[in-house]
């Protein structure tokens, strides 16, 4: 059975301070058109569960439509790392990580309507380690792989340096550590810096 690990988008979901918030409304109703309801949305591309394209932080980086979808479908490991502000290589080495995708669960409860003041982040050595064992996609349950107030976005650049695509704001509160099949696909937005995604996982044998 496939499990949805995507934050549900609503007009109440927290957004990055300064970004355009998510808004859905019916621009036309069935009573008005005589046949259908028609909805419209406006949003930042970095809302809810989303994927960053390197163009987000690098003018020369690839855009979301240029990311190879084949790397976004595959075998994944979900690990739990609680009560750590800095996730080091030494911490990651304690886990038996399989597949090309890793997800890290850092909190027990998702508060979708509250934007956090702080988030746990990886060291660059940890990112290099993930690359060395074949990781191509990294996912975490917080809105950024860098400190919330970072202007240099060192980890975004490090993930790109080591050819790892990062996914932020996965909804992991109802799933446990283990091995999964993973699918997480962005919208095919030409020239975009990022996109909301729909991410799902299915438990697999160890």
Description:
With 206 residues, this protein is α/β, with parallel strands linked by helices. The protein has 4 helices and 12 strands. The strands form 3 sheets. The chain has a 7-stranded mixed β-barrel. The chain has a two-stranded antiparallel ribbon with strand order 2-3. Strands 6-8 form a two-stranded parallel sheet. It is globular, with a radius of gyration of 17 Å. The mean pLDDT is 97.
Chart the SSEs and their pairings:
Blueprint: E1 2-4, E2 23-28, H1 30-33, E3 38-42, E4 50-52, E5 73-80, E6 86-87, H2 89-92, E7 101-105, E8 121-122, H3 124-132, E9 137-140, H4 154-161, E10 165-168, E11 178-186, E12 194-203
Parallel strand pairs: 5-7, 6-8, 7-9, 9-10
Antiparallel strand pairs: 1-12, 2-3, 4-10, 4-12, 5-11, 11-12
Using brief descriptors, characterize the structure shown.
single chain, about 210 residues, alpha/beta, seven-stranded mixed β-barrel, two-stranded antiparallel sheet, 4 helices, about 10% helix, about 30% strand, KFase_sf
């Amino acid at each position: 059975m496939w499990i949805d690990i995507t934050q549900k988008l609503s007009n109440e979901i927290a957004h990055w301070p300064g970004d355009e918030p998510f808004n859905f409304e019916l621009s036309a109703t069935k009573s008005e058109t005589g046949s259908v309801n028609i909805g419209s949305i406006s949003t930042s591309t970095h809302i809810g569960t989303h994927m960053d394209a390197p163009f987000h932080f690098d003018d020369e980086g690839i855009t979301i439509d240029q990311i190879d979808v084949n790397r976004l479908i595959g075998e994944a490991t979900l690990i739990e790392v609680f009560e750590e502000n800095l996730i080091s290589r030494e911490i990651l080495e304690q886990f038996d990580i399989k597949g090309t995708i890793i997800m890290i669960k850092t909190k027990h409860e998702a508060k979708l309507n509250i934007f956090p003041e702080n988030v746990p982040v990886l060291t660059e050595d940890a990112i290099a380690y993930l690359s060395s064992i074949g990781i191509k996609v990294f996912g975490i349950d917080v809105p950024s792989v860098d400190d919330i107030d970072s202007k240099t976005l060192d980890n975004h650049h490090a993930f790109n340096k080591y050819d790892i695509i990062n996914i932020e704001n996965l909804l992991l509160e109802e799933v446990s550590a283990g091995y999964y099949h993973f699918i997480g696909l962005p919208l095919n937005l030409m020239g975009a810096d990022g996109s909301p995604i729909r991410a799902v996982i299915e438990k697999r044998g160890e």
